[in-house]
Amino acid sequence: CLQECDPGYYGEGCTEICSDQCAGGNATCHHVTGSCDLGCLPGYHGDLCLHECDPGYYGEGCTEICSDQCAGGNATCHHVTGSCDLGCLPGYHGDLCLHECVAGQYGAMCSKSCSENCAGEDNSCDNVNGTCDQGCEPGYQTPCCDNKCDVGFYGTGCIKNCSEHCSGEDNSCHHVTGTCDLGCEPGYQGDLCADAILQEGKIEDSERNMFGPSLSFQTFIIILGCAVAVIAVVAVVASLYMFRLVLHFYFIICFWLEI
C-alpha cells in the first residue's frame, strides 16, 4: 500500500478516474483527493473540475463574465467559449456580441440596413433601432426615414404645407418638391401653384378700383401719356401765340410813338 495510484486514477483502490476536465494533456489529478494537478479546463470549476461555470460566467477559472449584449434576461453564454446562448441584443454582433454594427447596419444580428433616405453621406443610423443619425432627407419622416411625408406636407422634416391651390380634394403634392400632384386650380400657375394668373383684359381688384371696371391698366397709361403730350403741345402753341401777340402790340405802340 505504499505505491501511489497510476496517473489518471485516484482514491481507494485507485479505482476513481481523474476528471476529463482536468487541465493538461493527461488529465492528471491528486492520487488521494482527485483534485486536478493543473487546475480545470476553461469552463469548469470545483475541486474535481466536474461543474460547469455558473450562469453568466465562462472561461478559465470561470472568471470571465458573459457580455452585457447577450440576448435574454440573464445574459447567459457558453461556459467555455463565452458565445451568447440566445445570440446578441439588437445592434451588436460577433461571437461574444462585443461589437456594434458597422456603419449602415442595425438591429438583430445587424441584419438590417439603414434607410437610404437617412441624411448624410453615409446614411448612418442608430445601431439598435435604426433612427437616422442626421435626420431624414427632404420628403421623409423620422425616425427611420422609410415613410414619405403625410399627404398635404412636403420638404425637410415634412413641415411644409402643400399649396391650397393644388387641384384635388386633399391638395396633395410631391413629398420632396411640393409640386402639386394634379396640377393647379384654375387661375393659378407655377411649380407650387402659388402664382395667380392675370387674365387678358382684367386687372387686380386694387387696380380695378382705381381705374374703373373696364379700363385696363395698360390702356390707362397710354391715354395718360397721350393727354400729357397734347397738353404739352397746346402749351407750346399757346406760348408762341402769346409771344407773337405781344410782339404785334409792341410794334404798333412803337409806330404811334414815332408819329
From TrEMBL:
Keywords from the UniProt entry: EGF-like domain, Membrane, Transmembrane, Transmembrane helix
UniProt-listed InterPro entries: EGF, Growth_fac_rcpt_cys_sf, MEGF10/SREC1/2-like
Domain EGF-like: 17-50, 65-98, 161-194
Presence of keyword Transmembrane: yes
Gene Ontology molecular functions: scavenger receptor activity
SMART domains in UniProt: EGF
Transmembrane parts of this sequence: 215-235
Protein name: EGF-like domain-containing protein
Naturally occurring in which organism (per UniProt): Elysia chlorotica (Eastern emerald elysia)
